[in-house]
Structure formats: structure tokens, C-alpha cells
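Handout, page 2. Input:
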Amino acid sequence: MNQTANIKRRRGRPPKTANAEFRDTRETLINVGLSVLTEKGYSYTGIDEILRKAGVPKGSFYHYFDNKEAFGRILIEAYGHYFARKLDRWFQDRALTPLQRLNAFIEDAKTGMGRFEYRRGCLIGNLGQEMTALSEGFRALLQEVFNDWERRTAGVLKEAQQAGEISKDLQCDQMAHFFWIGWEGAVLRAKLDQSPEPLDQFAKGFLSLLRGT
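Output:
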């Protein structure tokens, strides 16, 4: 009898635990939230829409998050980490020169926007534009993400200096700051125009500035 019971327990895949199901559903809500907010923004996105797209029962949102603001904070952190990994994938590619790495990131980002027909932009940039309608607590989180991206960008620019691709007189930290100010504006315009041209124009101008041409 015990042997039969053991055989039955071994058949098939073991059921997920309650904790695993909680994590899976929470992760689904985060992923859906990221996709919706990069397109529509925070203020114009309702919780019910996210639940519907995630296939999660209406009214269960607060089982996973304290409130919409807490959800927004988690999305900022998740998007920041996701984009940092994207930057590292290109900026740490030693098969390319430093400036080629920067350009490869730009091309990859452009392709990503094109995949969604330029409806989606940058979550951090979107939220920054909505700052007057958001909780003041969001400000430091958004600045922290931008600062992190700027540090990574400054790093690849410093490598470009060491490789002789750009002048050693350039202030890499300032140029990285300038890059993200301009890039976010180009992303916004690309969404408006539904075209890669603003991204191309900014990239061409920034790289020319770096090279002094």
C-alpha cells in the first residue's frame, strides 16, 4: 500500500506551491505593468486594465501590492535593472570598440521601438514627464535610475578616450549626462512622429560631437 502511494506521488509534475504561484502572478503583473506603462504612462493606466491584460481576477491586485504607488515604485526598480542589463550587454562587448558599443546600443534600442511601431518609449522618461502628477517620492527613484545609466555610459566613454576614439579633453561624466537628456527627448519625438528619424538624428549629432567632426 505504501509502495502504491509512493508511485502515485511520483507520477506527473508536482503541483506548484502557494508561494510559487504568488511569485508567478506577481511577476506577471510586473511584466504587464511595464509593457502598459511604457506605452500609456502611469497616470493614464488603471489597475483594472493591468489585471485584465494579465488575466488576474479583478480586485486581487492588493493581494500582491499595497497600492498603485507601491506598484509604480517596483516597476521603476524592475525597469531600471532591465535596462542596466541591456546597457551592460552592449557596453561590455569587447568584440567592439567603445564607440561601436554605444552605437550598437542605439541601434538595438531603435529596433526595439520599431518592433512596437514606436508606441512604447522609456518608462523612466515617461514617468519623469508625469512628475507633477506623481507622488514626490518618485523623484529620487527616477533620478537614481538615470544616474546609474549615466555612470555606465560615462564608463564606456572613458574607454573610448583610452582607445583614442575621442578627445581626452572631453568630460565623460558631463557627456553621459548630456546623452541621456538628449536621448530621452529623441525617444519622445520618435513616439510622436512614429519614426526612427529623431533617434538617428540625435545619434548622428552626439557621435559627431564626441569625435569632434
